[in-house]
């Protein structure tokens, strides 16, 4: 949490926002950390008569959907979520209670996406064909979530294609390195495929990918 807030503050400092318009500084971030309480998924808390608990959202590792019960009215609040299991995360949970009000982020609310396995095949095909023609591939993506998913796909694909073993893969970002440590630690929060693989080796200990 502190890492993410500090990163967003750094972005604000580097942007054209004037000092007067900055809503918080690094000291505000440090002071806020003492006010944060960590809860487990499905753990119910009550504050001032409002009961709430959370479910996994399937978007990135640790993403949560919150259900609040306010005087008998159930409100489900969530940011991004995914009902499709990917190569490392479980799909978002379906609450066991019906909701009266849903507040949902809707960036992709009207989009129709291809199935996950179809998108993965397109992704690896484009990369393999580019390399076969002597090209190089530069991928820009989010450091948390999407990055780990793509690296898992690429490492597995490279393992299954010996002709690519002499082609190096690098990821370049200090933030990605720190995120990778989190993913290597919380394997038990991922899907069954990753947990089973972890019995033999850590899937995030890549064989064909190195940090810069």
Could you give the topology of this structure?
Layout: H1 2-14, H2 26-33, E1 45-47, E2 50-56, E3 64-70, E4 73-78, E5 101-104, H3 116-132, H4 146-159, E6 169-171, H5 174-185, H6 192-198, E7 209-211
Parallel strand pairs: 4-5, 6-7
Antiparallel strand pairs: 1-2, 2-3, 3-4
Helix pairs in contact: 1-2
Q: How would you characterize the overall build of this protein?
A:
With 212 residues, the protein is an alpha/beta fold. It has 6 helices and 7 strands; from the N terminus they run ααβββββααβααβ. The chain starts with a helix and ends with a strand. Mean pLDDT is 85; it is low at 1-14.
Characteristic key phrases:
212 residues; alpha/beta; five-stranded mixed β-sheet; 6 helices; 7 strands; 16% strand; disordered N terminus
What's the total helix number? Answer: 6
| pLDDT averaged residue by residue | 85
Our Rg estimate from Cα atoms comes to 20 Å
- The structural class is alpha/beta
Task: Summarize the biggest pleated sheet.
Answer: 5 strands, mixed
What fraction strand?
Answer: 15-25%
The tally of strands reads 7
Low-confidence stretches: 1-14
**Which strands sit side by side, in order, in the main sheet?**
1-2-3-4-5
The quaternary state of the protein chains shown equals single chain
């Amino acid at each position: 949490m502190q890492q993410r807030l500090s990163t967003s503050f750094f972005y604000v400092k580097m942007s054209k926002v004037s000092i007067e318009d900055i809503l918080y500084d690094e000291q505000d971030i440090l002071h806020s950390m003492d006010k944060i309480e960590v809860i487990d998924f499905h753990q119910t808390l009550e504050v001032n008569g409002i009961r709430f608990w959370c479910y996994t959202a399937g978007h990135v590792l640790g993403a949560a959907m919150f259900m609040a019960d306010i005087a008998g009215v159930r409100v489900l609040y969530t940011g991004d979520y995914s009902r499709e299991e990917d190569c490392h995360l479980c799909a978002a949970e379906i609450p066991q209670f019906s909701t009266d009000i849903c507040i949902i982020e809707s960036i992709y609310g009207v989009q129709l996406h291809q199935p996950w396995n179809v998108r993965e095949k397109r992704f690896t095909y484009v990369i393999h064909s580019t390399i076969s023609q002597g090209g190089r591939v530069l991928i820009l993506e989010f450091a948390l979530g999407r990055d780990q998913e793509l690296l898992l796909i690429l490492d597995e694909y490279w393992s299954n294609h010996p002709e690519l073993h002499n082609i190096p893969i690098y990821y370049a970002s200090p933030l990605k390195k720190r995120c990778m440590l989190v993913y290597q630690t919380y394997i038990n929060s991922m899907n069954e495929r990753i947990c089973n693989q972890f019995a033999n080796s850590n899937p995030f200990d890549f064989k064909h990918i190195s940090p810069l």
